[in-house]
Amino acid sequence: MSSPDLATGGSSLIPEDYLPYLSYLPDLQHLVNLLMTFTPMFSYGTTCLGIYRRQTSMGFSIDICGTMMIASILRIAYYTCAPFEITLLRQSMVMILIQSVLLYTSLKYRGDEYDPSKLMELPPLAHEVKDVSRRSRGLSCVGHEKYDAIGGVVRYVACLVWEWIKWVGDVVVTVVKAGMRLFDVYYRRPLLFWQWRDPMTYWKFLAGFAGVVVVLTAWFYTNESYANAIGVSGLFIEALLPLPQILMLNRLQSIENFKLVLLLSWLGGDCTKLSYLLFGTSNISLIFILAGFFQMSLDIYIAFQFITLKYYYDHWWRDSNSDSAPSVDDIVGKMLIHGDDTYELSNMSRESYEKNTTMDLSSRSNSSQSSYMETV
């Protein structure tokens, strides 16, 4: 649109003398791209500043730093194989920069008393699955003394099918809980991954991981399967970003050191990202959008935790019958459909496992839990 068109008949809303200056104003698309690029600076920069002012990283999960840096490295590698919107590439570079600063600050103010050897060992998944199978052998389908011909057989088969469906559901819940325990700071991960005591180990791992990704990408950058693998892996890892913070808030049952501005920046970042993916660009894959919605759903759950812990603690969180810290089983029971039945099943499984093993898990759990709480 030219300036004479705007000023036709002398009816322009903008004086003709000012029209040439409009060309110097930034384009709206450029402003959105700029906002997307530097959003991590604000959202995580405020967190870094808060840790520095409090002189403690208590209440903040450093798993967030590892998650975002690994995901950003994979996204940059994916760009070299299958170029996407360059704004997301710039955002990944900025993310690595701010997460490096945040990780350094968090480790510096973590506290000298931190000792990962005091964390609770992960319960053996094989024993939990076997215990579920032991209690799901169709026992509710036996004991019927009368089966009248075809009708009885049909009812018996239907009962067995239903018991099988319930067994599959219980196994899925058990596996999900085992996977989520890897994100829970209460448990000791294999090889103490991202729970190391020496801060230098974190930087060595990140440097080694980046080096391996660079070598593999240089070798397979023309391989479509490799590009898809690192692309999906990066999205999946980033989508799981809120899980460590969810489990930490569930464990501590306190928002004392979790700032509202961080939560709002996460939700705002989700809205900005989804708006950008849906309306701001056309060169984007559907998997980016799905991963964005999944991550936003987890951030919404953190918002639910924040509100209930702050305003409705007695109704949602206080348990007068429990003296121990809540476990990951609690939150899985709340997030999945099984609800209280899942938690009850977990307790039954734990009791059965303790009875059928020679190791006294109960005493070791209490001892490790006490050590963990002293560390925190």
From TrEMBL:
The keyword Membrane applies. It is a multi-pass membrane protein. Keywords: Membrane, Transmembrane, Transmembrane helix. The keyword Cell inner membrane does not apply. It is found in: Membrane. It comes from the Eukaryota. Residues 362-376 have a biased composition (Low complexity). Pfam families: PQ-loop. The chain crosses the membrane at residues 31-52, 59-80, 86-107, 202-221, 227-248, 284-304. This is PQ-loop repeat-containing protein 1.
